[in-house]
From TrEMBL:
Keyword Signal belongs to the record: yes
Stored PANTHER family: FI19380P1, PERIOSTIN-RELATED
Lineage, uppermost ranks: Bacteria, Pseudomonadati, Bacteroidota, Flavobacteriia, Flavobacteriales
Organism: Formosa sediminum
Protein's UniProt keywords contain Signal: yes
Signal peptide bounds: 1-22
GO cellular component: extracellular space
PROSITE patterns named in the record: FAS1 (PS50213), PROKAR_LIPOPROTEIN (PS51257)
InterPro entries reported in the protein's UniProt record: Adhesion/Biosynth-related, FAS1_dom_sf, FAS1_domain
SMART domains associated with the record: FAS1
Keyword annotations: Signal
Residues in FAS1 domain copies: 33-181, 192-335
Source organism superkingdom: Bacteria
Protein name per UniProt: FAS1 domain-containing protein
Length: 338
């Protein structure tokens, strides 16, 4: 039998006041003749969500599209297309939704999508309360925050903002959010790899992998941590070698004890011995694992860059790549200490 979303009607009748669209000033004027799936299909900003639902349903144990077309009622927190792009940028080995086209990937996608659904209630934003905990169809809870807007907290440290609320459907209500919600089940699945495993599994970090092996830092970054690693791309290492001149054409040219020690210190300069997520960044100086040497977090427009001891800065290309012992951020330049 295909999996159906669980119904929590009795529970949610105690938790929520079900309000009608006509009585809610925030409600969006959508035809109540359309169900949740049909509205998503007609909303360009939700095309990735529709694709994700269809891909998940190509696994025989999932039937999300049919379920969300039934009577309900349901509440769906619907991530935007950009929210899917942001998630893919954080996941090692996933560059597009088509990369979920394996049995494991589809099961992961199904779990994520179920975490965005509340079954048994059509919950308007006016019925939400601050710090309210809501059980999802996946089984884990999300938490509501009403400070300066409507936000939904998942198992990560970053909340999703409701950017458009109360889109009424014939079988429930949709709230559009700017982030994919991740349950602890998915976090645990993603965190089965250490930071070194993540580096090894990323083609564009192959020179960093070789450098870690040469500098004998693999065991260190496989240990418990937690660590934050700023991971330079292959192009970043190539640019460094070019800047060093003709004597350094590859990592093989770091072949004396002094040069290997130098390489090790450079790599330790990319490590912080605590977890720092993109949301935690602010203008400050941060001590690195190369004792006595700090990097600076500097504002650049509406984002942050990493400044080394030379005064040069590195851009963060991909943030918050989660490992079992920390987090990695891919950067476009090798940072240099004193």
């Amino acid at each position: 039998m295909k999996t159906k979303l669980k119904y929590f009607g009795v529970l949610f009748s105690l938790l929520f006041v079900i309000t009608a669209c006509d009585n809610d000033d925030d409600a969006t004027d959508m035809s109540s003749s359309q169900n949740i799936v049909e509205i998503a299909q007609d909303t360009p900003e939700l095309s990735n969500l529709v694709s994700a639902l269809l891909l998940a349903d190509s696994e025989t144990d999932s039937n999300l599209v049919e379920t969300l077309s039934e009577d309900g009622p349901f509440t769906v927190f619907a991530p935007t297309n950009q929210a899917f792009v942001d998630l893919l940028n954080q996941l090692d080995g996933f560059n597009s939704l088509s990369d979920f086209d394996t049995d494991e990937g589809k099961a992961m996608l199904t779990t994520i999508l179920q975490y965005h659904v509340v079954a048994g209630a059509a919950v308007n934003s006016s019925a939400l309360s601050d710090n309210q905990e809501i059980t999802t169809a996946q089984g884990e809870m999300i938490t509501v925050s009403l400070t300066d807007g409507v936000y939904i907290a998942d198992a990560t440290t970053e909340e999703a903002m409701v950017t458009q609320a109360n889109i009424e459907a014939s079988n429930g209500v949709i709230h559009i959010i700017d982030k994919i919600l991740l349950p602890q089940e998915i976090i645990d699945m993603l965190n089965s790899q250490t930071l070194v495993d993540l580096v090894v599994g990323t083609d564009d970090l192959s020179i960093l992998e070789a450098a870690l092996i040469k500098a004998d830092l693999v065991d260190t970054l496989n240990s418990e941590g937690p660590f934050t690693v700023f991971a330079p791309t292959n192009d970043a290492f190539a640019n460094l070698l070019n800047a060093l001149g003709d004597d350094y054409n590859s990592l093989d040219d770091f072949d004396t004890e002094e040069e290997i020690a130098l390489l090790k210190n450079i790599l330790l300069y990319h490590v912080i011995t605590t977890e720092v997520y993109a949301a935690d960044l602010s203008e400050t100086s941060v001590e690195t694992a190369y004792v006595g040497n700090s990097i600076n977090i500097v504002t650049s427009g509406d984002t942050f860059v990493i400044q080394d001891a030379t005064g040069e800065t590195a851009n963060i290309l991909s943030a918050d790549i989660l490992g079992s012992n920390g987090v990695a951020h891919v950067i476009d330049r090798v940072l240099l200490p004193n």
